[in-house]
Amino acid sequence: MSTAPTPPPEPDTTRIAELAEAGARLLVGTFIDNAGITRVKTVPFDRAGTAARSGIGLSPAFAVMCLDDHVTATGKFGGPVGDLRLLPDLSTATVIDAERGIAWAPLDQYDQELARFPLCQRDVLRRQEQQASELELAFLAAFEIEFTLLTSSGAPVHTGPGYGLGPLLDLEAFALDLLEALATAGVGVGTLHPEYGPGQVEISLAPRTPVAAVDQYVLARLVIGRTARRHGLTVSFAPVTLADEIGNGSHVHFSATQAGHNVFTGGEQIHGLTTTGAQLIAGVVDNSCAAAGVLTPTIASYERLQPGHWSGAYACWGLENREAAVRLIRGSAGTRSASANVEVKSIDGASNPYLVLATILGLGLSGVREERTLCQPVEENPDAIPAQTRADRGIHQLPTSLPDALDRLEQSKVLRSILGEDLVDCLVAVRRHEVDTYTETPMHQRIQLVRDRY
Ligand code: GLU
Ligand code: MG
Fold it and tell me: Model confidence over 191-208: pLDDT tens digits?
């Protein structure tokens, strides 16, 4: 997919001075690769302006870097030749620890001519944000982050009860430090609670415009990681961290306004949806099987994505249905124009969040362009419906294995048009390496691998 070159913006010297004034001495730049791994390059802060102008070098082979750091190959990527430039987006940079002088910024990927690298995941999302505005739609999105906290010996920090006061009291010092660190970093937090599974904690983030919502999620994971380490704990955002236990989701909520009106409420269609709202949901639901290769992209994702786990294992939608991949949330009476939103539940934290949100919004927009008709909602537990009735109603389970998900992604025209041909080829290659290398690996070792890497 070719895009018009967008030259990088000239770094804002006032902003650089403000960050230096706020204590920045080291700039930590992050990007998320196609294996969902957060990769990092840092520069002393006095080089931040130079880095934002001419970039930091990166091999294009990172497009096919796998979760175990193996470099795989597509026809175009994987060789040792070439260079990309990583440019910290200083307009988003923030000081996360003034005492230690740590600042953070997301990195954008350019080529040496300083034209956008077409596989820059953050730019793929930016393009969907632009396409929404061409359809006069404005999106907001917010992530929920579930993670497992483990002691240094690998034991979960709590053993329930899920959502229990006891685990919160045990974790009080960590929780207070975390909330303070997130506030310092400018991360908007909705809620924090101990989750259902052993060692699980969840925080939900405040809504932001799409790229900002993902940047905030990336920053929040960084801050959670730092805070956990300060408390002598390890943290994992992997879909599965302990055998036979409930997994970690990375659910995304999104809403859209058209002419200032929330399209998920106040309309004439079922459950008060507007026509545009219904079309947005239809685009996501109808393509949710193909999207699994992006949203639930590692072998362990399919240990989590099972019926009965509230992970949204069925390719359907429903009002407040926690077993549907797509859950419509109307919000409380009197607040709906602000609060009605759609949650995509199937997503997990081994995914690339920029590509996850680009996929969801891009599929939604395809539903609007194609004027899709929304299928009937599922208002009960889809898993409790007899198999034949379920099939007659066209309710299917999402892919149940990574190979199946990758085949569907590879063949999806709509996802290829949203993400770009080369990017889809890289995503598939990176994840097929996992299938080829780890399918026969004993489950506990597979869990260990994702637990340590995400
Ligand atoms: N832990 C569940 C998941 O894997 C989600 C539970 C919830 O609804 O918050 O997605
Ligand atoms: Mg949860």
Answer: 999 999 999 999 999 999
